Amino acid sequence: MSERRIVNYTLRISENLRDWVSKTAKENRRSMNAELAVLIETAKKATEEKDGLEKPI
Description:
The chain is mainly alpha-helical. It contains two helices and no strands.
C-alpha cells in the first residue's frame, strides 16, 4: 500500500469563490478543504482523460 503525503498549501481566492466553495461543501457534507480536494482531483482526471494521459502524481 502506498502512503499519501499530505502537504499544507495556502490558497488565496476571491470572497465570491470562497462563498461558493463553502456552499458546495455544505451541500456535499464536506469540509471546504475536502471539497477543494475533490474539485481539483475531478479537474485533474478530466484533463488526463481529455489528453489521453493516466499518470499518477
